[in-house]
Structure formats: structure tokens, C-alpha cells
């Protein structure tokens, strides 16, 4: 039961400004994911919430209490570290019991909680082992268990899955989601993996260079990215970008580049009209491009030369060249396409994105 | 593997008398030989000679004859010998406790980040680097009752009103040489323990802090147990060295006043070389062996237990 809020949060390491004016309200029981490229300040922000890193300026509140000066042990949070940080000289059970022992819980209660956590995580048979006798996935579970037994106000996760192999990562991702549904504890989760962010987050914070780029539900970020960075970061395969010039004529607004002339749909056109004659960046996701049929409007078609064909079974991923620009397209897996083919492609105008060439903000 | 494979492929070109080396047991024996010879020559032989000497009645200029355990029986009734035994244990015990405490404290300080850390760390090593005889002479001068800085300072501050004869009083003399030994030994503890501390991931302390452990509990439940294997090895080295210490006591007090500060090594030297009773001196230094042996075995067993935990 806890809200976490960050107000004008800043962090300097000496003179380097690594977290810049972060404002954020994390709701009770919410699973909030921080995502961004490595070095963007996610871990630092999380560590400030944990109390492991001093705050340079701003305010952090947990449950409406300012915790700026509260040491980690009094914040009632639990953290899962990237490298697990299990106590190597203690058994799994002692690792989980430690936090409760420090808080002077009764022995029976400690045992009850360990049993429950072990049960949830399926590690009952590992309780007597030392961390070094465990696999990566098992260590991860123990680290989770150590957090669960505490029954804290807030869970903090710092890239907890990044040391696991791909298959295990997917499995643990699902389990984390189930766990959150079951325990319903406010959680802050840091990752550089946008798939984890999209699948786990109730809401997602996209960060870059210490600045929050956008906060929103996963689909919101995917459908309405606030700027070019978010557009390119969220979604896989990544969104295509093409440098275009906006033109206004015959009552239509078009985005033009060599080999490309796309009419903008009405809503976008009305926002872009004032920028006619200026440069912009057009964005379209590979899944919003397909091979054109004879009936498709020429307004949204373009000619492309196929460079690489990647058959994935569920889809074919094409790398194509359109004038000077590269465009990836995800098309029907049954299509017969080969490298160097010339194709006529069509994009879904409703899913077009346009970004200001200078500010990179969505138009 | 690589060695045997290589050897096998060249079988035809190797002379017969070298073929034996293809057998790993023979090869191991040959490779061990130089070490074994050196150890035998410089450790086992002198040790055996020492044992023989202690069983004889040799004096300077007199090879003497076999007398059995007579030398040891004589030691049994020698008050000074028993004083040295007691002194050696007391000296080793007290200084080790202080060296460990101070060394650990310094190591924990140095394990934090602060400006000028590299310089401080280099500075701390100084007592360890300066030749013991040299630094001990400096200390001896400082403890001098007439001219010394220590007495002068205490006097000026008003803590004492008469000169203290540091090295002239048996208890004060013992305390003085302990101070010097601690001064000399702390750097070794500090630097070794610092190396040990640096192998402990800071995340563990952070995890413990989040788990609700106050600083003392973090030290006691996380840092200390993880540092224990290193601590035990450092203690082992230090105890062996301190137990057999010679230079420091020899320079500071020469075992005096009135034989009050003799350790095994200085007393052995006193009897064997200064008084020329070679066999008797050998007996004293050999008497150190069983004591040291027990201490070392106990420590090694403990280290084994700690490390396999
Ligand atoms: N203790 C530190 N001292 C100095 N700079 C640091 C420290 N910790 C992190 N940084 C810097 O702060 C920036 C943000 O780091 P971090 O929060 O770890 O990024 P992320 O977790 O997003 O990858 C990076 O440029 C990193 O080099
Ligand atoms: Mg990080």
C-alpha cells in the first residue's frame, strides 16, 4: 500500500548531471517500468528511491512522507539487484530470513513467511543450499524470495532478468507478472529491454540522458510516441524514419522525399500544415507497411528495392531501399519475394508519425 | 593434456632414456626435484642439525658429545626460559589483537572513497617498508628517558612530572616493544584486509541496509564473515612472525632489563651465541617449535573450516 512520487528530482555525480528534473507519480499497486538505453540514469533514479544514493535536489515521497533523509532500512522497501546480491555465506533460508531477523520478527513468523515465499517461487527444496550451489535462475528466485518475505511497501527491481539466458528470461518475465498480480505491491522496475517494459509495465517511463521522455501505458507509447526517440526505442523491429519535406498544395499536405510522396491523413495534415515547406521526419512501423494491391491509392504507395529478405515463419521481414532511405517492412510470410526485387509497397496512413526535424517532438 | 599429446606424437624421435618422462609420475618427480633439493638443503638439513645440536653438549670451540635431553631438562628449571615462554605468548597475543583491530579499522577507512586516498595508502605502508632495525633504532631513541620526544611531549603537556624510564622498567619495556611491534605490523594487516574488503561486493552491504541492518549488524553479519578467511590467513602469517620475532627486541632492549623482555629467539641468541653455549641455545629455539606447531595447526584447521563453509 504505497504511492511513490518524485518531484524535480536531480542527481549530480560531481559535475555530471545524470538525472534531470524527474517528476513522476507512481500509484498504489502500480507496476512502473523505467526503460531507456544504458547510462540514461535509470539505476541512479532507482537507487535514490531506495536511499542508496543521496539526492542532489528535489524530493522523494513514499506514502506521502518525504524520505529524502530516511536511510534505506527505514523506507520499508525491498530491492532485487541485477547480480542478485545474495549473501554468499548464508543458506537460501538464511538469506530470506535476514531482513526479518534484523527487524526482530518472531521465529515462527519468519518460518511461516519463508515457507510461503518458497512455495510461491517453487524453491522449497533449495532452502538449505548456499547461493553458489544454485543456477542463475534459482538465484534469481531466491533474490525475489528475499524481497517477498519482507512484505514491503515497495518493490524495486534493477534489471533482474538481464543475467538470465533468453528462454529463462521470458519464463521469469511471465512469473514476475503473475507475482505482481498476486501480491499487488507497488513496484518500480528498471530495464533496458523494451519488450520487458511493454509486457510488464502498467505504465512505462522512457528515459534518455537523465530526462524523462514520456510516461504512459505501453500501448500509448507504442501508438502515440511523444518524440522520435520514444518512437524508435519502443517496438521491435524498430520504426522506420525518413527525412521528408512537408508540402501543402491542392488541399493536401504531403510528406516528400526522393522516391516518396505520401499524403497525410486529415488529422495529421491539419497539424502539419503550418510547417509546410519545412523539413520533418516521417515515421512508420514495419508492421504498418505491406505489399501494395492494384486497388491501393497511389497517395500512400511507394516503390522499393528489396535488399534483404528475412523469413521468420510468422512474417517476412524485408529491408528495402526507398530513394536514399532504408525501410523495413513486415509482410505476409507466404509472399514470394527475393533480394533485388522491385516492389510496390503501401503504408497504413492512419499509423503515420511525423516528427519535427529540429525538436524531434511528435507533430 | 597438451604435454602428453605432444610427447606421444614425438615418441619416435625421443631417445629411450627420456621416454620415462612420458609417464606423468616420473615427470612430476623430475619437476619437483629442484624444489625438494632446495627445501632439503636449506630447511630440513639445518633443522636436523639443530635437533642434533640440541642433543649434544657443544660449546663454541668444543664439538661436545651426545647428551640426550639434558639441555631440555636444564631449560625446565630455567626461570628465564619460562619468562621468555610467557613473554612470547603475551607479546604475540597482545600485539596480534591490536594489529587486527587497528588494521581492520584502517582497512575499513581506506575502503571508502575520499580525496588523497592513494597517498594515505602509500603512507600507511611506510612502517612496513622501512627496515626494522632502522625504524627500531628511531623508536629506541624516542623512548630514551633523557632526550626523547615522548617524555618531552608528555612533560610539556603536563601529564608527567618526572622522566619515565621506558626501557628501564620491565613492564614498561614490554609495553614499549609491543607498541613498536604493533606500529610495524599494522600496515600488513591494513593492506591485506583492505584487499579482502575490496573483494566483497558493495551490493551486499546495500542489500543488507535495505534488509534493515544497521551499520554494526552489516559489519557483523555480512562484512566480517566474508572477510574471515583473509583475516585468518593474515593472522597466521603475523602470529608466526611475531612468535619468532628477534630484531625488534634485540635492538630495543636486548632482552633486558634483567632478562625481563626475552622472547624465544632473543633468549636462544643470548645463550647460544653471546654465552657460547651452542647446544643450550639450540634447545631454546627448538622449544619454540611445538608451541608454534600447535598454534599453526589449530589456525590452519580453522581456516579450512571457514573456507569450506
Ligand atoms: N557512482 C557513480 N559515480 C559517477 N558516475 C556515475 C556513478 N554511477 C553512475 N554514474 C553515471 O551516471 C550515469 C547514469 O548511470 P546509471 O543510472 O547506472 O544508468 P543506467 O542504469 O540507466 O544504465 C552514467 O553515465 C554513469 O556513468
Ligand atoms: Mg543500470
Structural account:
The complex is a heterodimer of chains A (363) and B (309). The mean pLDDT of chain A is 92. In chain A, the strands form 4 sheets. In chain A, strands 6-7-8-3-9-10 form a 6-stranded mixed beta sheet, sandwiched between helices. A 5-stranded antiparallel beta sheet of chain A has the order 13-12-11-14-20. Chain A has 9 helices and 20 strands. The radius of gyration of chain A is 25 Å and the shape is elongated. Chain A has helices at 42-50, 92-102, 107-121, 136-150, 166-183, 194-200, 218-223, 228-233, 266-272; strands spanning 4-13, 16-26, 31-35, 57-62, 65-66, 77-80, 154-158, 186-191, 203-208, 211-216, 240-249, 252-257, 260-263, 279-284, 289-291, 301-311, 316-322, 325-331, 342-347, 353-356. Chain A folds into 2 domains: 4-226, P-loop containing nucleotide triphosphate hydrolases (Rossmann fold), CATH 3.40.50; 240-356, OB fold (Dihydrolipoamide Acetyltransferase, E2P). In chain A, helix 2 packs across helix 3 (107-121), helix 2 runs parallel beside helix 4 and helix 3 crosses helix 4 (136-150). Chain A has 363 residues and is α+β, with helices and mostly antiparallel strands. The longest helix of chain B is centred in the first third of the chain and has 32 residues, at 79-110. Chain B is 74% helix and 0% strand. In chain B, helix 3 crosses helix 14, helix 5 (79-110) runs parallel beside helix 9 and helix 10 (202-210) runs antiparallel to helix 11. Chain B has helices spanning 2-9, 16-19, 24-54, 70-76, 79-110, 117-129, 132-142, 149-157, 170-198, 202-210, 215-243, 247-252, 264-274, 278-307. The mean pLDDT of chain B is 86. Chain B folds into 2 domains: 2-54, no CATH class; 70-308, MetI-like (MetI-like fold), CATH 1.10.3720.10. Chain B is mainly alpha-helical and 309 residues long. The chains are: A alpha+beta (363), B mainly alpha (309). Magnesium ion is lined by residues 42-43, 159 of chain A.
Amino acid at each position: 500500500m504505497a504511492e511513490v512520487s518524485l518531484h524535480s528530482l536531480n542527481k549530480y555525480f560531481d559535475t555530471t548531471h545524470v538525472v534531470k528534473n524527474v517528476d513522476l507519480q507512481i500509484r498504489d499497486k502500480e507496476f512502473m517500468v523505467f526503460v531507456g538505453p544504458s547510462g540514461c540514469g535509470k539505476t541512479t533514479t532507482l537507487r535514490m528511491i531506495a536511499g542508496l544514493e543521496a539526492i542532489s535536489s528535489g524530493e522523494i515521497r513514499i506514502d506521502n512522507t518525504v524520505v529524502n533523509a530516511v536511510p534505506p532500512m527505514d523506507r520499508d522497501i525491498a530491492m532485487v539487484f541485477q547480480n542478485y546480491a545474495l549473501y554468499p555465506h548464508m543458506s537460501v533460508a538464511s538469506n530470506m530470513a535476514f531482513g526479518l531477523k534484523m527487524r526482530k520478527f518472531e521465529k515462527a513468523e519468519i518460518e511461516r513467511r519463508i515457507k510461503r515465499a518458497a512455495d510461491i517461487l517453487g524453491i522449497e527444496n533449495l532452502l538449505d543450499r548456499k547461493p553458489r550451489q544454485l543456477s542463475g535462475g534459482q538465484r534469481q528466485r531466491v533474490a525475489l524470495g528475499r524481497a517477498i518475505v519482507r512484505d514491503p511497501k515497495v518493490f524495486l527491481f534493477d534489471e533482474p532478468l538481464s543475467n538470465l539466458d533468453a528462454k529463462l528470461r521470458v519464463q521469469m518475465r511471465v512469473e514476475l507478472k503473475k507475482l505482481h498480480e498476486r501480491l499487488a505491491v507497488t513496484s518500480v522496475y528498471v530495464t533496458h529491454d523494451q519488450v520487458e517494459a511493454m509486457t510488464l509495465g502498467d505504465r512505462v517511463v522512457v528515459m534518455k540522458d537523465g530526462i524523462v521522455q514520456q510516461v504512459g501505458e505501453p500501448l500509448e507509447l507504442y501508438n502515440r510516441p511523444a518524440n522520435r526517440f520514444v518512437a524508435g526505442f519502443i517496438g521491435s523491429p524498430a520504426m522506420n524514419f525518413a527525412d521528408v519535406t512537408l508540402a501543402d498544395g491542392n488541399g493536401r499536405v504531403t510528406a516528400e522525399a526522393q522516391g516518396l510522396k505520401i499524403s497525410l491523413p486529415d488529422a495529421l495534415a491539419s497539424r502539419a500544415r503550418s510547417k509546410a515547406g519545412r523539413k520533418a521526419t516521417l515515421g512508420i512501423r514495419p508492421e504498418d507497411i505491406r505489399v501494395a494491391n492494384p486497388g491501393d491509392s497511389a497517395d500512400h504507395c511507394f516503390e522499393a528495392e528489396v535488399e534483404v529478405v528475412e523469413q521468420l515463419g510468422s512474417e517476412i521481414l524485408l529491408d528495402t531501399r526507398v530513394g536514399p532511405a532504408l525501410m523495413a517492412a513486415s509482410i505476409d510470410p507466404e509472399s514470394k519475394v527475393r533480394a533485388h526485387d522491385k516492389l510496390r509497397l503501401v503504408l497504413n496512413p492512419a499509423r503515420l508519425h511525423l516528427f519535427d526535424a529540429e525538436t524531434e517532438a511528435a507533430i | 593434456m597438451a604435454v602428453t599429446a605432444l610427447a606421444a606424437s614425438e615418441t619416435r624421435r625421443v631417445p629411450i632414456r627420456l621416454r620415462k618422462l612420458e609417464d606423468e609420475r616420473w615427470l612430476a618427480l623430475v619437476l619437483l626435484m629442484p624444489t625438494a633439493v632446495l627445501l632439503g638443503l636449506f630447511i630440513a638439513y639445518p633443522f636436523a642439525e639443530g635437533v642434533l645440536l640440541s642433543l649434544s653438549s657443544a660449546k663454541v670451540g668444543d664439538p661436545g658429545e651426545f647428551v640426550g635431553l639434558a639441555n631440555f631438562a636444564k631449560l625446565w628449571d630455567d626461570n628465564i626460559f619460562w619468562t621468555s615462554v610467557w613473554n612470547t605468548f603475551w607479546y604475540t597475543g597482545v600485539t596480534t589483537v591490536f594489529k587486527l583491530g587497528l588494521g581492520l579499522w584502517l582497512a575499513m577507512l581506506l575502503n571508502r572513497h575520499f580525496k588523497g586516498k592513494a597517498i594515505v595508502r602509500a603512507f600507511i605502508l611506510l612502517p612496513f617498508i622501512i627496515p626494522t632495525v632502522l625504524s627500531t633504532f628511531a623508536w629506541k631513541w624516542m623512548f630514551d628517558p633523557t632526550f626523547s620526544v615522548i617524555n618531552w611531549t608528555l612533560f610539556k603537556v603536563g601529564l608527567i612530572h618526572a622522566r619515565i624510564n621506558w626501557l628501564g622498567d620491565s613492564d614498561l619495556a614490554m609495553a614499549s616493544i609491543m607498541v613498536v611491534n604493533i606500529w610495524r605490523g599494522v600496515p600488513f594487516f591494513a593492506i591485506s584486509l583492505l584487499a579482502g574488503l575490496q573483494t566483497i561486493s558493495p551490493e551486499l552491504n546495500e542489500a543488507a541496509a535495505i534488509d534493515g541492518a544497521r551499520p554494526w549488524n552489516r559489519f557483523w553479519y555480512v562484512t566480517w564473515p566474508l572477510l574471515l578467511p583473509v583475516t585468518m590467513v593474515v593472522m597466521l602469517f603475523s602470529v608466526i612472525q611475531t612468535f619468532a620475532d628477534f630484531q625488534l627486541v634485540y635492538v630495543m632492549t636486548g632482552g633486558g632489563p634483567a632478562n625481563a623482555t626475552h622472547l624465544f629467539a632473543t633468549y636462544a641468541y643470548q645463550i647460544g651465541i653471546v654465552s657460547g653455549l651452542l647446544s643450550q641455545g639450540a634447545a631454546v629455539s627448538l622449544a619454540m617449535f611445538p608451541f608454534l606447531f600447535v598454534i599453526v595447526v589449530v589456525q590452519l584447521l580453522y581456516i579450512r573450516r571457514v573456507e569450506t563453509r
